[in-house]
Amino acid sequence: MNKMSIRKILSKIENEETFHAVADDYSFSIKIDDYVPYVCAAVHDGHHFDKRLWSKCLHTEYDRWYEEDPCTGNMISLLPITIIAHDSRFEYDLNRDPKEAIYETAWGKTLWKTPLSEAEKMRALEKHDNFYRVVLQLIVKLEEQFGTAVFYDFHSYNRKRWDREVPVFNLGTSNVDQMKYNLAITQWQEILNNVTLPIDQKVTCAINDVFQGNGYFLKYVTSNSLNSLVLATEVSKIYCDEETGVIFPEVVHTLKDKLKYYIQSHAHRFYDRHHTYES
């Protein structure tokens, strides 16, 4: 994977080149093996935390890991177009509007011993902006090529935080056109409902149960596209021990293999239905 400037990444997308790249500040990576009408994103996969901020942060590395979405980038890695964050959401949260992307408190606990300087905030927000410059270029290019696209916005969540039974998968649809995309949403739910995993519990997929799909990535793509759908897809952390940080590789590998097949199948059906859509 080559280190690449944002300008060069944008140019390669504009010229419809295939490439693997990490941003030159290592904040995210992008892979395009083929230009297809679907993208997989893992905006909370990142765990890297700027060393210059370590002494200022009150949260431990485990505290940060617990609220991140470990392994989600790995789970989507076999798909042809992926964009995966490498920085922790504790430095700046890509799933929040830039005005709210830098936490002062996080999950009920003050984050910083001393407030971040304006220079530190600007450095973080520049990386946030660069990420979305690339996302916008992807939206424009794929709709130009295909007339439509579907973005699989992949996350995970802590199931032990809930005092009730929660689904293995959750789709957040409150900020997408549920009438226009009803069939695509329903089909994605049915697919995930039938996923078999090496875990000792029934796999279910609910819609707007634990999360409703209020993230900035979904809202950004939706507001900057003409005919594209974002499927905010959460998997509960059945693939790790939330209390120790131990990852269960057999579950991660199974999810990675299944998602490769199911996302491609779902995306092709979505394209067949929506690429000739006229408003």
Automatic annotation (TrEMBL):
Q: Name one Pfam family in it.
A: FGase
SUPFAM superfamilies assigned to the protein according to its UniProt record, in alphabetical order: Zn-dependent exopeptidases (SSF53187)
- Entry-linked InterPro entries: N-FG_amidohydro
Which protein are we looking at? N-formylglutamate amidohydrolase
